[in-house]
Prior knowledge:
Blueprint (H helix, E strand, L loop, with lengths): L14 H12 L5 H4 L7 H16 L1 H25 L1
Helix pairs in contact: 1-3
Amino acid sequence: MKNLPRPVRDRQLTPEERIICAYVHFVLGYPQQDLTAFFPVNSGRINEAIRAIEKAAFDPRAVRRYKEPLEKLKKKVRKHKAAKK
């Protein structure tokens, strides 16, 4: 029996793959070990991607940074709609 070549597992995940990993892990509930079977990277890269998305999504400092400009934008839209009437 021939030895099959091992897949290359030292590459980085693309941003789209990182988001897919986080979605499948947090929303669908798949463990990280199962995700390593679907992506050609080691489990450390999967964990790194999931933690980065988790930090970006749930970090209160990140939420605060985007919340204030969003509130200003909502006020401008309300003013513009009121001015049109």
